[in-house]
């Protein structure tokens, strides 16, 4: 679970930095948000499928490992 929280924290920090830089260049907040999400708007279906598949694999692995650790701790008791 630490990996998920660290990844979310990094995503938030990088998005905030990107939006901050855009706003310092004179863009409005809504335009800065559009600039941050624009790479995802031009992706084709196959690219989006691969992106979400990899995200799903990442999340599934994290939950599997945490389940495995909890099960191993229960066996030790």
Helicity level, as a percent range?
over 70%
Query: How does the helix and strand content classify structurally?
Result: mainly alpha
Output the helix-strand order: HHH
Radius of gyration: 18 Å
Mean pLDDT: 89
Distance from first to last alpha carbon: 22 Å
Which descriptor suits the 3D outline?
elongated
Count of individual domains: 2
Number of extended strands: 0
The biggest sheet amounts to: none
Poorly predicted residue ranges:
none
Number of helical regions: 3
Strand portion = under 5%
Keywords: Membrane, Transmembrane, Transmembrane helix
Pfam families: YczF
Transmembrane segments: 48-67
InterPro entries: YczF
How would you describe this structure to a colleague?
By secondary structure, this protein is mainly alpha-helical. It has two domains: 1-42; 44-77. It contains three helices and no strands. It has helices at residues 2-24, 29-41, 45-76.
Name its key features:
mainly alpha
Brief rundown of the structure:
88% of the residues lie in helices and 0% in strands.
Fold blueprint:
Blueprint: H1 2-24, H2 29-41, H3 45-76
Helix pairs in contact: 1-2
């Amino acid at each position: 679970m630490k990996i998920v929280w660290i990844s979310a924290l990094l995503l938030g920090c990088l998005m905030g930095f990107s939006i901050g830089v855009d706003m310092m260049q004179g863009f409005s907040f809504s335009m800065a948000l559009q600039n941050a999400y624009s790479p995802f708007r031009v992706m084709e279906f196959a690219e989006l499928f691969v992106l979400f598949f990899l995200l799903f694999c990442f999340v599934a692995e994290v939950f599997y490992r945490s389940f495995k650790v909890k099960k191993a701790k229960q066996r030790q008791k």
